[in-house]
Amino acid sequence: MTAGPEPLGDAARAALHRELSDLRAERADVAATLGDADEPGDRADRADELQRATEAERLDARIEEIEGRLREGSAAAPPSTGTVGVGSTVSVRFGDGTESTVHLGELADADDPSLVTVASPLGRALLGHAAGDSVAYATPLGRTTAVVLSVGAPGGGS
Question: What sequence ranges are listed for the domain Transcription elongation factor GreA/GreB N-terminal (predicted)?
Fold first, then answer.
């Protein structure tokens, strides 16, 4: 990825907020089941309590991770129109001569057929490149190339 914090697109921000809300609700449910450590119980009760405490820790870690990503995304500048970053709209010419315009995003979205995630081979290859650059990346059929034709700002097209 590029150096520094990456901006978040509107769809990614909304998805993270939804996940955060769900995690907080789940964390509250788990917390409600955690009992008083001084209560008597058998080993099965203690094991169950330990499992719930471990689940609470996992949820806390994910909540902290999402909150950090949201803070980072808010502090980041939008991607430059000169280089490919999260949120950029990029026109590319593939090795077979076909051309396409794709949008780079952080999270997959089934409703956006032009979305390429930055975790995908093409997305990783495009990050940080500018118009005129050639990139190589792996596909299921082997390595291929693409040329960056243009880079546009988020939502602005190419």
Answer: 12-71
Strand partners for 144: 137
Predicted model pTM: 0.54
Strand ranges inside the chain, DSSP E: 89-94, 99-105, 115-117, 134-139, 142-152
Going by C-alpha positions, the residue among 6, 5, 2 that lies closest to residue 154 is 6
Quick one: which H or E segment has residue 24? helix 10-33
The fold of the 89-152 domain, in CATH, is: Chitinase A; domain 3 (3.10.50)
Contacts of 26 (CB under 8 A, 6+ apart): 59
Please state, in angstroms and rounded to a whole number, the distance separating the CA atoms of residues 100 and 138. Answer: 18
Structure tokens at 70: 């949201």
